[in-house]
Amino acid sequence: MGAPENTLAGHLDPARLDEWFDQRFEARMAEREAAHVPSLAIIATKGTLDWAYPPFILASTAGALGWDVSVFFTFYGLELLKKDLKLAISPLGNPSMPMKMPFGPQWLKDINWHVPNLVMAGVPGFEKVATGLMQQTVKNKGVASIDDLRSACLEAEAKLYACQMTVDLFGYSQDAFIPEIEGWIGAASFLSIAQKSDVNLFI
Amino acid sequence: MSTTATQTLDARGMNCPLPILRTKKALASLAKGDTLAVTATDPGSLKDMQAFCKQTGNELVSSSANQGEFAFVIRKS
């Protein structure tokens, strides 16, 4: 802008300084973005077989993508960290859950059984049967078991945290849980993880 | 399936996210520049494999669909 290029005044010319800064800033930001490891933080609060899938599918996949993954298991979600997984489903009060036979000829498999709530609630062992049918369907469709997905998470070094308050609340013993648990933490610790994460999910 | 790939992976019959998890595992054992040929039947794998390669920086050399089967060739980078 009028000032000769190679003089001090030329270098301090505001327009040229702005241009230099913009270029430098762009380059730095691009470097930063390239080096950035994405991170995922999930709060897992449900302890049924169906609800166990979303956190473990997302955590294991993010791990496979090279993301930094943390999952905080709280309330019923703690069931997903037990050594002995005894997860069940309850179709009762869940009108969206298709009730289908995983066995027999195709026409039988295609039927969506509408079971009245009264039957679901009243027949002893109904949930056990429904859980068994769901497990069979999962196997038939080539969907991973929860055990496999949890192992995949651990292999990918996803950090699995347990909520200490829930352990105290329900009177659990830490021995009942898998030894790979990253830590027994509370809300404040999880929030500091969540604050630095790119993706935060409550499941 | 390409016969020139360094390694092959049969992910047929597996459902999301297993094809991706197995692919990741298979790639880990390969050297830079090696190729992995994957076959899958999960229709979601078509988009997922693209996303996986983009995120992990590996090259998706080819991807094709043929009668419910999907074939991918990935070069490790």
TrEMBL record, chain A:
This protein's name: NADH dehydrogenase
Taxonomic lineage: Bacteria, Pseudomonadati, Pseudomonadota, Betaproteobacteria, Nitrosomonadales
Organism: Thiobacillus denitrificans (strain ATCC 25259 / T1)
InterPro entries, per the entry: DsrE2-like, DsrEFH-like
From TrEMBL, chain B:
PROSITE patterns found in the cross-reference section: UPF0033 (PS01148)
UniProt domain UPF0033: residue ranges: 9-33
Domain of life from the UniProt record: Bacteria
Gene3D superfamilies for the chain: TusA-like domain (3.30.110.40)
Alphabetized InterPro entries for the sequence: TusA-like (IPR001455), TusA-like_sf (IPR036868)
Annotated family: Belongs to the sulfur carrier protein TusA family.
This protein's name: UPF0033 domain-containing protein
The species this protein was found in: Thiobacillus denitrificans (strain ATCC 25259 / T1)
